[in-house]
Amino acid sequence: MTAKVVTITSGKGGVGKTTAVANIAVALASRGQKVVCIDGDIGLRNLDVVMGLENRIVYDLVDVVEGRCRLRQAMIHDKRLPELYLIPAAQTRDKSAVSPSDMVRLCDELRPDCDWIVIDSPAGIERGFRNAIAPADKVLVMTNPEVSAVRDADRVVGLLDAEEKGPASLIINRINPAMVKRGDMLSVEDVLDLLAIELIGIVPEDENVLVASNRGTPLALDGKSRAGLAFQNIARRLLGETVPFLDFEAPNLLQRLFTGRK
Amino acid sequence: MAPLFGRRRSANSAKERLQLVLIHDRTDLTPAELDALKDDLIATISRHVEIEPAAVDIRVAQEGRSQRLVADIPLRSSARRRAY
Ligand SMILES: Nc1ncnc2c1ncn2[C@@H]1O[C@H](COP(=O)(O)OP(=O)(O)OP(=O)(O)O)[C@@H](O)[C@H]1O
Ligand SMILES: [Mg+2]
Known about the structure:
Chain A is of the alpha/beta class. Chain A is built from twelve helices and eight strands. The site of adenosine-5'-triphosphate has 21 residues of chain A, from helix 1, strand 7 and helix 10.
């Protein structure tokens, strides 16, 4: 095994990165993959609660980096799946406790015995973002169909190109088809025209996302909700499958997406 | 796009505004700087050839994620013809 490292980042906060990491990790693991997720948001740890693993934390990322425990000891096994693990962030430290080269070293140690390492990046373009992208083989930039999120995504895509971490792929989260239809929300096509990067997922606005995080059971565990299905599809695309984009949009757009338009 | 029901759709405004903002974010070129560049360009070119300052069009064009500066500078041909 040689793991592929995937980092999800966004620029703007609150667009759904942590939700996406939890769900994509679950979706990959439910396809028989061995997955380790890393919460890179030191000081604002959240991936543990979204995954429902908050009561099982003993050691965290900073404990590993500072040598207080071995890597294995900080990996919490999510027992709902055979091979899903979480390395939680430290809650009482700040981003400077970890460096980009620490992250590269840690991922290099993990790579030989898992299939995927999925990293949850904090918002912003500072240290935490640099840490999260340093070990990445593939960066997924998440945005919402909204002016400030798209603008910040563009900035991040530019930075990733400059750092030779590109080309990034795009996840558009919280699409509301009814609002798009009446012309009051940027469509998938609009966002793609603006950002000019490859699309890897469209996730609809879905109340079930909140219900799932209330319970600590990521949606992709059952995959019946629309958002859950959308996250499953992102995982399948990461695994190299060609999966049609879900029908949240007008048919003419879908035709263009099917023909591979970027 | 034509407004439906007389009201301009907000998604269109969002897209048009973002198009301009992203050009400036990506190039560090503000509309004011672009105007200054245009004036300099007109002054420089006018030293060599007669042009129509009012008809000069300078803008940033997009191709995927890269931008290029495109200038359309019509030459004034009447002067030359008068000389013959
Ligand atoms: N598709 C969706 N439909 C409805 N709600 C969503 C969706 N995606 C995310 N949310 C909600 O948006 C909020 C922010 O999500 P999340 O914490 O995953 O964002 P984030 O990008 O990780 O934020 P931060 O930048 O603070 O780390 C949460 O309340 C989550 O439930
Ligand atoms: Mg988060």
